[in-house]
Amino acid sequence: MIKIKVDFARCDANGSCAALMPDVFEIGAGGALKLLKSEVEEDRKDEVEEVILCCPMGAISRGSDALPVVEPFSAEPQPHMGGSLEGKPLGFGSAGYVVLGYALAARVLRDSRFRNAALDLMEKFGITAGPVHEFRARSVLMAEGPQHMRLRAPLARFMGPNTVEAIRGVLRDILGDIMHGMSGQVQFHTAVADPIPARIYCHLAGAPATDAPKVASLSARTLSLLSRDRSLTPVILVAYDELFDYLRNLFARKKADGLGSDMLSFLIKEQEAGKLSPEELLNEATAMLEASSVNTSHQIGLTVWALLRNRDIWSRITSDASLIPAAVVEATRLFPRPGIVSRIATESIDLDGTVIPQGTDVHVAIWSANRDPERFERPGEFDLHRERNQPLTFSTGAHGCLGQSLARVEMEEVVRYLAAHYPNSVVVDDATEVAQVGGRWLVKSLAVDLRQ
Q: Are 170 and 200 in contact (CB under 8 A)?
């Protein structure tokens, strides 16, 4: 016999199952689905499969297919430490399917049949038309295939290894400027981690360094979409309008003063050569600015917090600076800022025996994949010599983060500066709050006692 299960919380009672198997499903007088029997004969396997595929909400499953319940955007700390849950790398919750295991997560992120959910999230905020919606719909995040490669190529060329490595000297100057004379207890996140990515963006974009606070604010307010707090819709719309105006003014100043070798000048030259339309120029620059600061600043704070709290690891780093790159990778594995990467199935897709219906949300739990014991030995431990250490913090595949090398360099140089100038620094625990909220690790406050 084949057991049939229904998740009534997900059922929209559209009647397709009752039409296909009227002896098993019935839509009652009040419009609610009724399960008339929970088992059918083995020779009705094809009927069961068709019902599962036709259920738009994915509410129907075989009894053996029952998935563990996972709420990826819960404000509560995640009780699950990582990897498969109840022996399964896939879960389900009120937000849709949740990928927990590393191997399955990497597969989903590399599979072009799963598209980015950024536009759908924007529409859930009520932003269904207008300039902001048009930007997202045409952005590199939503593009696929040749169009995606065409839009991604200019940014990938500019953000190559030579550009990223050249940033190290700039970072050291910025850190010297920001931290010169600092001592004692400081709010490290607001005083150091926040301004650094915005200052680097200004350097790359050829914008005045004095614009850094504005850049940081625009990045934080536009990406507040990821909080999934729909009351922030007016804040988000205003932030994007400000961002568009800021970039248009910056374009005009650059054209008037003469184009240089910076990122925005590079994109303007691409547009003037006919490789980008005027709208694509604005979209490319917008995508880079919105992603420039807030996530990197939190990841810098999380990395410093993780390293300073582990005194054995910190002691080894201060004694041997060559360990810093490995320490940064391990810190981002354990405490990834982008805790969830959301995708949508563009067709019905089989994931390890579970059929994901077309149009269904699939959320890749980066924090869980990064601690999967099937991929990482002793996943909860901080290991400076971990082999095959390739966490999914910056995603993977065609839509992997364009700025991941730059973000790593920023973290490395912050750690290097602290180790060289303040080797005895410690986290002040009672003035620090780091949490995992809504699937993301974030720094609410980070107090550090800077000790030379």
A: yes
